[in-house]
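Database export, one record per block. Field names are fixed; values are copied verbatim from the stored entry.
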Amino acid sequence: MVLGGILRDMSQPTIISSTSPLKRIMHAVRAIERGDYDSILLRDLMKDAGELGQLAQLLDAMASNISQRDTQLRLLNKVIPIGVALSAEKDFNRLLESLVMEAQTFTNADAGTLYLVEDDKLRFVILRNISLNMKMGGTSGMPIAYYPVRMFNKDGSENRANVASYAALTRKRINIADAYEAEGFDFSGTKAFDEKTHYRSKSFLTIPLENKEGHVIGVLQLINAKNPTTGEIVPFKDDNVLEALILLATAALDGYIREAALRSEIAKLRIEIDQTRRTKQVEEITETKFFRDLKHKAEEMRTKLQKE
């Protein structure tokens, strides 16, 4: 009731025109309604010891609660069903592709690449770029013609120059606003790709995918987050919903890899069992009296022919 009374008072022209802080509060209220509130709007006012400060703190707390509720709803309505769908996916290529596509959707990323760890290398398995209409790997039928990224150099040292291998080695998420201005990483391959395709790779979010044992099984790299309104390339933002999606997707990917490894072991075991069974059957046949007599007769015939 107190908040409602204050807001009704703000509708009076004399108060709005004469009080700048109230204008800022109204702006914050509208931002909360639109879903793009940022606490920086009321940061100075929240330090005020009077009623305006209390109101600003109340609005900021309200916005935080609304944001948490919206995040929970997004988790329930979007991420969890996606996680369930990924876990139920039996087509490995479709699973990999879905992981990248969903991550692109949540971050509004123009491009995405997925690597899997194989023998100390990061192998390209999915490559997608919306602007270039590029789809490689997965269900596209188009092979990825890029060499795997080495996690270790020829001298055995860690390859920390490549951002994807760095993320895999350090288990750290790397967020880069502009690859062309980033220090500490070698983006020469990226720049060569841009020159060839007339593209401009700018913002990067590189995420190591860890299983429940803490082993990195892959790396997801998202490129060029776009402002939904202007289309401008912007840096990637930390997002709890994306975090939940990555956890669920990694669990699904790890589950599939484990299941595939188990199927491979079972198939190998069956082959070994079949070979053992065949060996045993051969031994049983060769030890019979009939086989020994047959072998003896064959030797006699061979000796007789040699004498003739």
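Remark 1: The chain has three domains: 2-71, 91-260, 261-307.
Remark 2: The chain has nine helices and eight strands.
End of record.
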